[in-house]
Structure formats: structure tokens, C-alpha cells
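Translate structure to sequence.
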């Protein structure tokens, strides 16, 4: 399965690259103000099935004409997200053997990203549900029924609840070396407030390769006039968690039978590769998360994304 997926991904890059080279042979000043992105997170390439085991995202971005000036750009985000968490032991019905509860989330989101020459701010609002109504249990059992793998029991999962969250972030970036092999460094503090997540995070990111400035790069999902990019990034972050409802249940009058306390301190690391053609974006990466609860272990998963502008 791993080899087939990687082969398909490489072939898609090759075919798209050849077609785009023909398109770029002519001058085209078209601005693409709309983009649809399909993203999937999964740990199957790491041969594990635990904790944040899968997530699927559909995101639509557009750049209003009146929002862009010479020194300022804005795009609007609308999205759908579905993800689920499982313990490392998925065959035990005894919660004393579990290192975290089962949890599923299904939601929508809307946000705004405002970019300047070397800095940006973004805000995202999410609204979603947890519990059996999130359909995470049914989806994962259906998937495992079609493969020769263990079928998770989903006993005592986090109960049905409605959640809302507001996420805010700031980005400040510096170009350390110019093209053709550019190097950028960025700091990215974030804040999450709501019933699902409450945390503070300080992130750092380094980019290496053929990349455009902040307001024109796929590193930040930027739209408008498109130029080819091919680069990779290394990121790390420290997160202080005040509350995590997918581990601890609803913060007010929690009705979930089995919950665990979230670790206050998390460390996140990752590496990602980016490839942008005239109208398509491809991204492949690995993300590491330290122990989210006292009984849990670290976790590693892959990020795969394909986007198309129009």
C-alpha cells in the first residue's frame, strides 16, 4: 500500500510538471483568486494506528478583489474537517488498559488570512461535534472491515457534544539568503480559545529552496499571480495546553465515562516538502507530537495535500 501510494504521488507530480512546463512557455498574467485543497493526515505510512490516526480536510480559499493592495493581501477560508483519535490498544474493552479515550470530531470552519510584505495574521472559527454523531466510529470500522487489520471497539468514546473554537496566529518572517536557493526563517505564535481546545503555542519554521515571498508563496496558501516553487521546511513548536476536550471531555458538565488528563506541555516537530506549478500545489510531510497524556506515547503521522486554483 505504501509503495502504491508513493508511486501515484510521484506520477502525479511528473505529469503535472510536464503539462505546466508547456503552459509556462507562454506569458500569462492571469490571477487565480480561488483554490480548493484536499488534505489527508494518516499514520498508516508509519505502520501505526493510534492517537491521531486520521484526518480529512476540504478547504476552499478565495481572494476578494477589493481586499488586495500593493502592501496587503487577504484570503478567506471555508472548510470541512473530519478526524478521529484512538488508543494504542484497540482490542481491549477494559478502559484501564487504554491510554486515551476514543474521540471523533466533525466540523466546519471559516477564517481570514491577512498577509503583508513579511508578516501575517490569521483568524479561524470552528464549529463541530464530537461523539457518535461525528460518524468517526462508523467510518473507521468500515475502513478496517475492508482491510486485514484490527477493528477498534470504540467503547466509552467521548460523548456527543457541540464545540466551538477560535484560533488566532501571527507570523513574522525573515529572508536569510536570496534566490535561487532561498532560506527563510519565521516565528508563529498561536492562541486557541473555545470548548474543544485551549492552548498557547510558539512555533518556529525554516524554509529552504526555490520559494517566493510570504504574500506570494504556497507556504501560506497564497493566491493571485502564480510562480513555480519547490522547497522544503523544518518546523518545531512548544504548546502549553490548558484543556483538550478530546481527551478530557466537555469542559462544562462532562458526561463522558472515560477521560484522561491532558499533558500541559507538548512538543511538535515536522518536515514538509512543497511543489507549486502554475495552478496546482502538492505537499507531503511528516509531523511528530510528544505525549498528549501521561500514559500515551509519542506519535508520528503523514500529511498529504493537493490543491487546485481556478
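Result:
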Amino acid at each position: 500500500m505504501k509503495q502504491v501510494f508513493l508511486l501515484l504521488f510521484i506520477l502525479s507530480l511528473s505529469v503535472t510538471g510536464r503539462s505546466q512546463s508547456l503552459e509556462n512557455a507562454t506569458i500569462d498574467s492571469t490571477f487565480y483568486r480561488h483554490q480548493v485543497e484536499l488534505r489527508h493526515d494518516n499514520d498508516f505510512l508509519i505502520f501505526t494506528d493510534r492517537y491521531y490516526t486520521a484526518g480529512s480536510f476540504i478547504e476552499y480559499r478565495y481572494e476578494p478583489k477589493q481586499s488586495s493592495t500593493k502592501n496587503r493581501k487577504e484570503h478567506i477560508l471555508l472548510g470541512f474537517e473530519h478526524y478521529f483519535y484512538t488508543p494504542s490498544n484497540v482490542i481491549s474493552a477494559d478502559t484501564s488498559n487504554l491510554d486515551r479515550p476514543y474521540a471523533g470530531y466533525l466540523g466546519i470552519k471559516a477564517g481570514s488570512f491577512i498577509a503583508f510584505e513579511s508578516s501575517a495574521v490569521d483568524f479561524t472559527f470552528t464549529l463541530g461535534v464530537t461523539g457518535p454523531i461525528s460518524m468517526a466510529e462508523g467510518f473507521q470500522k468500515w475502513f478496517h472491515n475492508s482491510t486485514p487489520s484490527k477493528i477498534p471497539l470504540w467503547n466509552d468514546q467521548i460523548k456527543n457534544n457541540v464545540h466551538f473554537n477560535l484560533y488566532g496566529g501571527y507570523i513574522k518572517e525573515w529572508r536569510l539568503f536570496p534566490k535561487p536557493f532561498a532560506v527563510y526563517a519565521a516565528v508563529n505564535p498561536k492562541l486557541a480559545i473555545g470548548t474543544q481546545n485551549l492552548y498557547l503555542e510558539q512555533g518556529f519554521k525554516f524554509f529552504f529552496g526555490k520559494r517566493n515571498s510570504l504574500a506570494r508563496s504556497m507556504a501560506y496558501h497564497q493566491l493571485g499571480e502564480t510562480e513555480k516553487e519547490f522547497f522544503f521546511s523544518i518546523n518545531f513548536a512548544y504548546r502549553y495546553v490548558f484543556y483538550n476536550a478530546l481527551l478530557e471531555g466537555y469542559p462544562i458538565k462532562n458526561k463522558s465515562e472515560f477521560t484522561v488528563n491532558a499533558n500541559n506541555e507538548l512538543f511538535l516537530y515536522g518536515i514538509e516538502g512543497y511543489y507549486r506549478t502554475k495552478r496546482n500545489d502538492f505537499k507531503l510531510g511528516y509531523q511528530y507530537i510528544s505525549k498528549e497524556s501521561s500514559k500515551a506515547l509519542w506519535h508520528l503521522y503523514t500529511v498529504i495535500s493537493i490543491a487546485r486554483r481556478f
